[in-house]
């Protein structure tokens, strides 16, 4: 026996110890099986009290041996199993898993395994067992729970049920042989005969389901066959797997997921596949408990930690995702790559943790100083966190690394405008256009300071405010000519002229009369194009054109009176 096999068998006592077993030898032990006699391995039963588990299996084994002729059914003797385990250096008094029992059955060439559970009750004992084919551990025939005053009485009833199962195996073998030969009509007939002979047969129903699947019968036929098995054995992994596949082919996502989640309870090795499928079905929230289970079994597993992190991000559980990300990089420092930082920054931002997002971004660019996209993301998060000066520094670094950084120029100009660095914003806009940036996009951004300046000028009613608007709008129009920029030039110039006109007769200054005339000339030039900026702008332009027509003579007369040639 290999070291692996020894380890698997170490936890399993398949037979009772001599001191705990009923005394005396059965009649079968004294006989010998034929070469083709079926062989049955009855394992130590599971129980909260290990002694009762041993005694329960011994009672059933002894009963079956007494009621069966060795040439009809050979029960692997307890002394042979004990010898095998003891020679391997293991105690034979604990229960085994099915995988371990399969190894033992292979050694003794057993055709079937019986394992079960014994529990004490107020009136005696309860015995639950199942009949398993080691050729495929998913081929299981559950047996009804038997309650009796003593183990011997429970064993007597269980032996009767086992006899029924043994007889039904003939029909199951006929069905499975016919399926293997591609004779599906014969397979279905044999399965139905088996069900008629043994109405509780899961094995015949599983064979019928297999025949339907291999023959490519309609999916609803396979579903009905699988559900018939599950009504008898809700733990049948073969039935659940067929349900999952059939529902997927029927595009019935809800039932496919339900069957999948039931399946992984009994086949935990399929959890990774289930998690992947749930992701494909856009059901990441349902995958999280499976990953949590696997992490409890394998704490610190980097692959599982990453899976949990990604699933939490997918379901927008931002705080949990950020903590999961930190757990991941503590477990695997290599996981702290650019993608990790990008996702973490986005998660913190989505959770309105703007300062944290900016701090993560700072860590990112410190680790990857040549990554322009990370510098750009740092700038975005710093701007949102009201760290605009840092944002300007970061986006400049991004553009220095890659002048084509997506939205880089726009972000730089916006940040400079927000810092009230208008001249710097204009210089950046000029450079952006020279580097191939979209002029229309840059122009729309530059409307921001124009709108702000126009509002301030209107609130202050100051000539200086309107002159600032004219100057600023003229610069914008020289960079990105548009109806909007010309509109702001027009209303600024008009407002300067109107302010001069109001006081022109008081001050009687030639320079102010000349300035008023120049401003209205600029307004008249730009107003017609500015009117195309929109309906509201058109209405304003119409009003100022009328005003200039009505008051134009006053400015001309002021120039005549106050600017006499000397």
How would you portray this structure in words?
The chain is mainly alpha-helical. 68% of the residues lie in helices and 5% in strands. It contains 25 helices and six strands. The chain has helices at residues 3-10, 50-67, 78-87, 98-107, 151-180, 184-197, 202-214, 219-232, 237-249, 253-266, 271-280, 284-297, 302-314, 318-331, 338-350, 354-367, 372-384, 388-401, 408-418, 422-434, 439-460, 463-479, 483-507, 510-530, 535-562; strands at 39-42, 74-75, 112-121, 124-132, 140-142, 146-148. Strands 1, 2, 3, 4, 5 and 6 form a six-stranded mixed sheet that branches. Helix 19 packs parallel to helix 21 (439-460), helix 20 runs antiparallel to helix 21 and helix 24 (510-530) packs antiparallel against helix 25 (535-562). The radius of gyration is 43 Å and the shape is rod-shaped. The chain starts with a helix and ends with a helix. Residues 1-27 have low confidence and may be disordered.
Could you tell me the number of beta strands? 6
Structural Rg: 43 Å
Shape: rod-shaped
Helix content: 55-70%
Which descriptors would you attach to this protein?
566 residues, mainly alpha, six-stranded mixed β-sheet, 25 helices, 6 strands, 5% strand
């Amino acid at each position: 026996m290999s070291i692996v096999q020894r380890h698997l068998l170490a936890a399993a006592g398949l037979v009772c110890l001599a001191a705990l077993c009923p005394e005396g030898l059965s009649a079968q032990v004294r006989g010998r099986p034929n070469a083709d006699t079926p062989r049955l391995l009855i394992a130590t039963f599971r129980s909260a009290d290990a002694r009762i588990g041993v005694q329960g299996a011994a009672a059933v084994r002894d009963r079956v041996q007494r009621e069966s002729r060795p040439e009809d059914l050979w029960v692997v003797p307890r002394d042979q199993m004990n010898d095998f385990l003891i020679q391997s250096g293991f105690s034979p008094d604990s229960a085994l898993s099915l995988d371990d029992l399969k190894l033992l059955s292979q050694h003794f060439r057993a055709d079937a395994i019986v394992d079960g559970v014994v529990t004490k009750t107020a009136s005696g004992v309860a015995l639950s067992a199942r009949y398993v084919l080691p050729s495929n551990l998913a081929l299981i025939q559950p047996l009804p729970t038997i309650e009796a005053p003593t183990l011997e009485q429970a064993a007597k009833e269980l032996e009767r049920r086992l006899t029924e199962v043994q007889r039904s195996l003939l029909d199951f073998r006929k069905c499975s042989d016919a399926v293997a030969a591609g004779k599906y009509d014969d397979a279905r007939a044999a399965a139905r005969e088996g069900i008629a002979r043994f109405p509780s047969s899961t094995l015949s129903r599983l064979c019928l389901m297999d025949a339907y699947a291999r023959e490519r019968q309609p999916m609803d036929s396979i579903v009905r066959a699988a559900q018939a098995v599950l009504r008898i054995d809700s733990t049948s992994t073969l039935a659940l797997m067929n349900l999952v596949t059939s529902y997927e082919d029927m595009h019935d996502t809800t039932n496919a997921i339900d069957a999948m989640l039931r399946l992984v309870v009994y086949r935990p090795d399929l959890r990774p596949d289930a998690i992947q499928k749930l992701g494909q079905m856009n059901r990441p929230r349902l995958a999280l408990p499976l990953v949590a289970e696997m992490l409890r079994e394998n704490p610190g597993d980097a692959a599982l930690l990453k899976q949990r992190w990604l699933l939490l991000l997918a379901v927008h559980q931002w705080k949990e995702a950020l903590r999961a990300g930190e757990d991941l990089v503590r477990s695997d420092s290599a996981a702290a790559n650019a993608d990790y930082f990008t996702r973490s920054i986005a998660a913190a931002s989505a959770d309105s943790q703007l300062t944290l997002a900016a701090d993560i971004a700072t860590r990112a660019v410190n680790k990857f100083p040549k990554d322009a996209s990370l510098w750009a993301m740092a700038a975005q998060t710093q701007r949102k966190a009201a760290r605009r000066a840092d944002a300007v520094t970061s986006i400049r670094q991004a553009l220095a690394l890659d002048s084509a950084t997506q939205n880089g120029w726009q972000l730089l100009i916006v940040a400079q405008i927000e810092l009230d660095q208008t001249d710097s914003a204009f210089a950046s806009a000029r450079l952006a256009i020279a580097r191939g940036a979209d002029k229309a996009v840059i122009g729309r951004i530059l409307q921001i300071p124009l709108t702000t300046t126009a509002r301030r000028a209107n609130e202050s009613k100051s000539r200086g405010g309107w002159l600032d608007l004219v100057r600023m709008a003229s610069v914008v129009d020289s960079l990105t000519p548009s109806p909007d920029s010309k509109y702001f030039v027009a209303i600024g110039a008009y407002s300067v002229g109107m302010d001069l006109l109001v006081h022109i007769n008081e001050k009687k200054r030639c320079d102010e009369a000349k300035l008023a005339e120049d401003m209205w000339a600029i307004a008249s030039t730009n107003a017609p194009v500015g009117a195309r900026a929109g309906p509201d702008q058109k209405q304003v332009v119409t009003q100022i054109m009328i005003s200039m027509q009505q008051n134009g003579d006053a400015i001309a007369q002021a120039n005549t009176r106050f600017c006499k040639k000397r």
